[in-house]
Amino acid sequence: MAEKLNANRVGLALAGVMGILSVVCALLLVLIPGFTMIFFNNILHGIDITQIAKASVTFGEFIMGLIEVLIGSYLIGCVFAKIYNKIS
Hints:
Elements: H1 7-31, H2 33-43, H3 59-87
Helix pairs in contact: 1-2, 1-3
């Protein structure tokens, strides 16, 4: 029988990873905005984000976005673990 996942731990782990990625993304946007836009244009396969991206993000917007990423990632991780446990 497969080992059960702890939903809280999986949620926290995913939230941690996504939080780190969010901070790195924000830093890249501040430090090297041109490269960051090109990088994400390449990932999104033909969607030109330069047409929809803001030139800058305020600190408040960054914090709010980070909070949203952390909460959303935690919930997704919990649901993932619960589904995994059901089907294993």
